[in-house]
Specification:
By secondary structure, the chain is α+β, with helices and mostly antiparallel strands. The chain contains 9 helices and 8 strands. Strands 1, 2, 3, 4, 5, 6, 7 and 8 form an 8-stranded mixed beta sheet that branches.
Length: about 290
């Protein structure tokens, strides 16, 4: 296991280095374009280039952090105990704050300073000195916390910010957590009353529901209580799947039920009555079964 982790770390570091080099090369093209023409943002070439460099440094730092902590977030023990979205966010915010304060990586202050400097015909040395002085005056705890939050959002968040500010001409990738048009996501939560665990969950695609049952296509589900903090941070042991959703085909009929051993008598199995559902395209549905 130790050798596998070392090998994984080496691959992750290599990937992060390659991505960083490629992205810095791309940003060099941005800086070169800034020297050739007046930037669309209306900034001087020097300030425009300085802003691009600050955002590039933030992007590279985000890539390195993501690669470094992938070992922890993909660790079997971590996945067994914690919800990946809930705990990962807290960890990344804390680590990002430590990195920002320890290395004094205040990109938000650098951007605010760059945009607050007036356009002038002063020489490059004067503008650079003014920019550095403005960064020093702007940087404080709040600006560092904002930088840490942006950094915690990961490389995709930094990329989207660079696109919005005009430092990138287009979006190379789109990040989404929604199902595809030809998919639907479901989860099944089981409450045991007459059975002992473990409980098997059956999701079976059938040609048609029994006579008299006409399932309609579900698009989502509504719960009338807020989830407990423990449910948001820890993995739900009574949920299938424990993280994410199970992929089903839209507009197809499914029979869903749970089966478990009778409480106190493992020789007898108890099954919940089958439920018949259809799901709309891109549906995200949470089902509850009491058995």
């Amino acid at each position: 296991m130790g050798r596998m982790n070392v090998r994984y770390l080496r691959h992750a570091a290599s990937a992060a280095f390659i991505v960083a080099v490629l992205y810095m090369a791309a940003m060099a093209d941005v800086a070169w374009a800034a020297d050739e023409a007046t930037p669309a943002l209306g900034l001087s070439n020097l300030v425009y280039t300085a802003s691009a460099k600050s955002l590039t440094m933030l992007f590279v730092t985000a890539v390195v952090l993501e690669s470094a902590f992938a070992v922890i977030f993909n660790w079997r023990v971590f996945l067994a105990y914690f919800d990946t979205k809930g705990v990962k966010t807290i960890v990344m915010i804390v680590i990002s704050a430590i990195v920002v304060f320890y290395f004094k990586l205040d990109v938000f202050a650098s951007l605010m300073a760059a945009f607050s400097l007036p356009n002038s015909s002063a020489d490059a040395a004067t503008v650079a000195a003014s920019l550095q002085n403005e960064v020093t005056n702007t940087s404080d705890t709040l600006s560092k916390l904002i930088t840490a939050l942006v950094l915690a959002g990961g490389s995709s968040g930094v990329h989207n910010m660079m696109y919005a500010l005009g430092f990138r001409s287009n979006r190379d990738t789109e990040t989404t957590t929604k199902p595809a048009q030809d998919e639907a996501w479901i989860s099944v939560s089981v409450t045991c009353r007459t059975v002992d665990g473990p409980v098997q969950v059956s999701v079976q695609k059938i040609d048609a529901a029994p006579d008299g049952i006409a399932p309609f296509a579900l698009a989502g589900s509504v719960k009338f209580r807020r989830p407990a903090l423990k449910e948001l941070l820890m993995r739900n042991l009574n949920r299938f799947p424990q993280n994410g959703g199970y992929v089903v085909e839209p507009d197809k009929t499914y029979a869903i039920q749970a089966v478990g051993d009778k409480r106190g008598d493992s020789s007898v199995q108890v099954a919940s009555p089958p439920r018949y559902y259809k799901f709309a395209p891109r549906a995200v549905v949470d089902l509850d079964i009491v058995i």
